[in-house]
Design goal:
Blueprint lengths: L1 H8 L3 H18 L5 H16 L5 H21 L24 E4 L7 E6 L2 E7 L10 E8 L2 E6 L4
Parallel strand pairs: 3-5
Antiparallel strand pairs: 1-2, 1-4, 2-3, 4-5
Helix pairs in contact: 1-4, 2-3, 3-4
Length: 157
């Protein structure tokens, strides 16, 4: 046990700074905010060790552990740590992303059903306004139901 204590006592400040830099580098790569506070705690212990080189190694490890836990808990309970993380409402709903776009009828609509071209993709569509679009007519997407667009005649400018 005295070997471990001696090893901890012999660690200079730059070892703590290196640990802090490694933890912060991994944090930057992972973006989880779980290693941010232990990284900063290691840097702070390194500063303490720099100003007091005789600081007991066991105390340094204890301070590192306490600072890490307290800083992480304080962050998670703060307003910044609990900030709302919102995503785009149609992020994983590709068809809903096209609502509101004006597209061209790909073929004549029969019984209210047909196809439209959106960018480089052909989509099935149904009309919502009882019109009978012809090939080349401009239609506006009003809704999406899975892979089927609900369209109506687009107003002419």
């Amino acid at each position: 046990m005295s070997g471990i204590t001696q090893f901890l006592n012999d660690q200079p400040a730059w070892h703590w700074w290196a640990l802090g830099a490694i933890l912060l580098t991994v944090e930057i790569a992972s973006t989880t905010q779980y290693l941010l506070w232990p990284g900063l705690a290691a840097l702070m212990v390194g500063v303490l060790k720099f100003f007091d080189p005789s600081l007991d190694g066991s105390l340094a490890v204890f301070l590192f552990a306490v600072l890490s836990v307290v800083a992480t808990a304080a962050w998670k309970r703060s307003a910044w740590g609990r900030a709302e993380r919102s995503t785009h409402t149609t992020l994983n709903d590709r068809s809903a992303q096209y609502v509101g776009r004006v597209v061209k009828a790909e073929e004549n609509f029969i019984n209210g059903r047909g196809a439209v071209r959106v960018d480089d993709t052909r989509w099935n569509a149904v009309v919502t306004d009882d019109s009978a679009p012809m090939k080349g007519d401009m239609l506006k997407i009003s809704a999406a139901d899975g892979a089927v667009f609900k369209v109506h005649m687009a107003p002419t400018p």
